[in-house]
User: Fold these one by one.
Assistant:
Number 1:
Amino acid sequence: MKILLLGKNGQVGWELQRSLAPLGEVIALDRSGGEGLCGDLADLDGLAATVRKLAPDVIVNAAAYTAVDKAESEEALAALINSEAPGVLAREASALGAWLVHYSTDYVFDGSGEQRWETDAPTGPLSSYGRSKLAGEDAIRANGAKALILRTSWVYAARGHNFAKTMLRLATERDSLNVVADQFGAPTGAELIADVTALMLCQVLRTKDSADLAGTYHLAAAGETSWHGFARYVLQHAEQNGVTLKVSSDQLGAIATEAYPLPAPRPRNSRLALGKLEHAFQLKMPSWEQGVQRMLDEVQH
Ligand code: NDP
């Protein structure tokens, strides 16, 4: 079993290096590639040539243009990396009969209402990033590959910068702290995404007629919160561990989206319905609190 992993050093890519390892030979690339291989999603010809050269059984694309606000002024580059490159990967995967795993986002939705979005709910991206990710999904579907398109939300990882670590730092430095309280979703650990990806791949690779399992799924932690609720949970955890904060969890301010303007509009409702994934792959997504607690224990000790 040969697996080509793209975007190996991103939040999800890093965890996939670990979770995919027991499934077979993993050739993991970042944008610099190496040994005559191209891992740059902006180089469509190089990418296609690399897939042909390696002839993998599975391609996992964890690379993406993820600078949500910058994408408003770099629409063409975001489209190249998030839309055209996945289309090329799907075309090449289809020619090889390989599986393609690709990640997408809650930003494909317009964020209206309070219901959880089903996978077939109408899309309506609000931002350049959201449009580029939706076009990537469409390009994969149009190329007819056996693909798992996994939409996730509010991704964090222990490694590198993340929202939780930023909140902890600001709460020890500042005298007051306000966080948006009217956007709802589920913080989802890169570890969970990578583990579930490996479990899904295990099933599709070992099941007869597994092409039926190809499709679009929502892969996120269970439950929901707001960014304010997420930050409050992080501060409460720190308080329980005896960390001295200048802004306590009770003092954390709740503000509206309008009070914190950003170049790219955010969906207010990012609640993703998990039933299709849980039913098709017999999985049960853990609560968002469980993953966040583990991550905080890792970064605080
Ligand atoms: P990261 O930003 O952590 O990682 C993205 C990776 O893509 C980086 O390693 C980056 O490399 C790489 N990359 C960017 N441009 C290129 C390129 N031209 N060629 C090759 N690699 C490139 O993202 P996540 O791990 O958080 O995201 C994984 C997936 O999940 C993405 O598809 C994203 O759209 C999706 N997603 C993410 C969410 C989030 O909150 N982060 C929410 C919902 C979905 P470099 O460091 O060199 O730029």
Note: The CA atoms of residues 187 and 197 lie 17 Å apart.
Number 2:
Amino acid sequence: MPVKPDQLRIVHYPHPALREVAKPLKAVTGEVRQVASRMLQLMHEVRGVGLAAPQVGLPWRMFVANPTGEPGDDRVFINPKLTNPSPQTHPHEEGCLSLPHITGEITRPTQITIDATDEQGQPFQLTSDQLAARIWQHENDHLDGILILDRMPAIDKVANRQAVQDLEDAAQG
Ligand code: ZN
């Protein structure tokens, strides 16, 4: 069934799409470009810095990111692969557009390299030890069905218990 990009919306936990392992895209088609463009629009509407395809209900290995919010910094990552994580890690507070009102202190490698294909079908590689490195890791987790709920320390799980319950209740209708 063809995707209707205009109808895509950000889905919230516990939507089942957030727990699927997404599949690689076989080709960068016009449809893929339209979905990427819609995802960037949705991300900017809520002032996010990253959004993964499972967060709009699509089991595709693709995410968009923009660490600064400047239009020129929009970037599309298709079939991304992370390599060379630094042995140094650091904790930082993260939120998620699919987990409103929930934050947790997530420890991740400080520096990482990413290989991906852009929306023109061109492969590229980037390395970062800044906010981008954290965004890539957070968004790449979404492609494997992993949420910050799975990575946050126990103290944050306790602090977020009611917010998680509220989302589960909202999904029940
Ligand atoms: Zn997220």
Note: The longest strand covers residues 75-83.
Number 3:
Amino acid sequence: MQAWAPPVVSTTIPDRLGAAPELMLYDARTGQVEKTDPGDEARLYVCGITPYDATHVGHAATYVAFDLAIRAWREAGHRVRYVQNVTDVDDPLLERARATGVDWADLAGRETRLFGEDMAALSVIPPDVFAGAVESIPLIVDLILELQAKGAVYDVDGDLYFSVTSDPLFGEVSRLTRDEMLPLFADNGGDPDRPGKRDPLDCVVWQRARDGEPAWDTVLGPGRPGWHVECSAIALEHLGGAFDLQGGGSDLAFPHHEMTAGEVQVARPGEAFARAYAHAGMVGYEGHKMSKSRGNLVLVSRLRAGGVDPRAIRLTLLAQHYRNDWDWADDLPGAGQARLRRWTEAVRRGGPDATDTVNDVRAALADDLDAPRALAAVDAWANGQGRTVDGSAELVTAVVEASLGIALPLVAEDTPRS
Ligand code: 5CA
Ligand code: ZN
């Protein structure tokens, strides 16, 4: 699939300031903040959308969080290879298409395009590989065949299941007990009570064709892929094994990230799936997790259509630490807009020396993506008194753009440059 266009970068940080510190991130598997240790190229996979409803601010918060990680790696001197999937065929998408009387593929295409527009507006760096499940079916089938060859797949009335007990490391990503896993599995697309399964936690990797549903003719018989194996296959194909970071919202820790890791660990024994797992907190609205099924959505596209500057939306998301759960409130973008105005005025006016500001912003982001602390460092500069130092506004503009993804014009936007 074609991803959205990258943000245009208009400023650079002078070399004399050196590279940013190496990124430290909280790893779900160890329960600790750990130094990431990528080679020249950091390899990242972030679970993408299921495109049946437009981007809400919860999705946006998750993608902005991993965008900060990409920027931190780049500032520390790494190249980044970034892969993101699109779950463009799955139960909830098909249900929505049926309920609204639209073609499932048209719905997926429309919502994926809208997501790309929202991401571009929010200055989110696009993935290098943006892979739909449908276009990845050959890879997915190959991985299922590898699992079959390992004896880790069995048939229940024509549907193929992955046997979780074939993975000796199963449970290490989410660190949950089986009693904790079972209700989460049932609530997130799993079918623990289906008769004929060997273990209630086994997940479907290939669903045989059913009336009124799309199906693909493959060596596994006509059908479509299960959800988890989609991400296993796409990540393995485009990043290889033991890539640096698997990301997504905390709702994906179990079963999704546990299952994707398990499938790869069984297909390629001895090779970890990802070296670390990071999860963004859940954004709620009016007291509940924002979700398409509940319908309590604040859509990025609707905020934009209502005249909110996308940079103010991004600043609103950055004002929260990515690991926290938090509630969106309708007055938050106003505070983001006010901060954007203060920063814009400050860079036009100029301010005190900004070397510490650059170092503070970079250090805050390297420390488990502490964006609120980074914003506070820029606030302190913008409120700073004292002698204006030549070049300080350019420096702040550069770090705010490179590390935080907010473009601040150095001259008034409505004044033509001469
Ligand atoms: N297609 C799968 C991942 S393979 C999926 O979960 N799609 S999604 O559209 O439901 O979510 C897309 C991303 O947004 C996931 O990383 C998910 O964890 C994250 N997400 C969903 N809801 C929220 C929320 N309320 N707050 C923060 N992140 C969220
Ligand atoms: Zn995924």
Note: Residues 47-50, 58-59, 61-62, 85, 87, 231, 248-249, 251-252, 280, 282-283, 289-291 surround 5CA (ligand 1) (CB under 6 Å).
Number 4:
Amino acid sequence: MVIDMVLKVYNTMSRKKEVFKPQQSKYVKFYSCGQTVYDDLHIGNARMYSNWDVVTRYLRWRGYNVFHVQNFTDVGHLTDDADQGEDKIEKRARLRRLEPMELVDEKIKQYWRDMDELNMLRPNISPRATGHLIEMQDMVKSLLDKGYAYEVKGNVYFNTSKFKDYGKLARLKLKDLKAGARVEVDPDKKHPRDFALWLKAPDNHLMKWSSPWSKGYPGWHVECSVMALKYLGPTLDIHAGGIDHVPVHHVNEIAQSESYTGKLFANYWLHGAHLTLKGEKMSKSKGNFITARDAIDKWGAVPVRLALVSGHYRSQIDFNKGMMETAQNSLERVKNMISSVNSQKSFGRKSLKADINSHEKEFIRAMNDDFNTPKALAQVFQLVKKVNKLLGKASKKWIHAARDKVIELLGVLGVKVEVEEQGDVSEIVDLLVSVRDKARKKKVFKISDFIRKELKKQGIIIEDTSKGTKWHY
Ligand code: AMP
Ligand code: ZN
């Protein structure tokens, strides 16, 4: 279908929607900041990755060849943005009495399990920071040689006053920052905004490597620059991350990358808003979070994914039960429509061609407007309504085409609807419910909970009432 519309994306750098034009016509170099792997994936993180998954899926659907790199931070992310505090991974590993890399492995395994269930496409490369220490040291050496960095007592800092336009992405003004610095200024730094490229490790630190400056570890920002430049550089088409990354992480990534290469680091900067819980940012460090695992177990992976894309990526959304129920109901409507079409025996002669085309066109128009997923979803649901209305009146060809289009468009948003055609399962469910009752009576809750959870995944809800156990869809 020819659509005379261009994709526009909101570029944080210009604070404007800009026409998207990759450097090589249909090839997109895409880097998104990944997870610091010390804790479970929470649904705030999942929302962010879902945004970038939608960007990838949509661009691919529109014929672009997207090469997506998303890192794992497995060293160097400190509990404080000003190069103070402990390494998040080392701190948690110590608490749990694990090797830091043991913790990282555990969290990465869980990460893939949850992300796969949430139907997130795996990036082309998911590099780990600890696999790129040599490249990081090379970058630090080069920045020192070029006069952009300085060494003090085994630490190497980036000299922000040497980089013209430092802080442009966040509209930071260096002179204002001096006086208003939020944290105590490190006396070794020439300017409060200078940031660590390499840090000397204390004696009891586990994650440390030899370097020309000290036995230590890399700064968090240098990791992303190195991995992005290695696989996609020198200029990325899109660099994405959470809005929290704008003032420090991304400002610093730009400073060191552009000083290193002498080239523009990224053409488009995309930033996603946060998911909140009772109005507060969901966050691992504050402890107010719902893990992706719990959300999937409670509401099902597909409703969670639908809920995550139901808000525009630049709008904050508050996670609550109502939102999940809405997603479940919407999904139910789609599934019912598909079941009705699949079981339909008699057809009419009406065409749905014009409807399919116009809803798809509006879907594309919405997505071309900076990936407006709520507007795009509205088009899909309108098409679902039309199909329901024309059941029995439309021809087999067109009713099937409309059903397939609904499935396809939802798939572009990462929402995978599958309707298993099955016969009457009530006899099997009755049997499982009676096994569960027996397990409960014997207090074998592992089994009873397992049955309840598995049935829930199939959309079957068990309720314990005064008149015994009941179940329904
Ligand atoms: P972290 O592992 O904490 O560095 O976070 C990984 C990614 O999740 C980053 O891109 C963050 O911006 C994002 N993130 C963290 N908390 C939230 C939240 N509450 N809502 C949306 N994204 C978040
Ligand atoms: Zn990053």
Note: The chain has a mean pLDDT of 93.
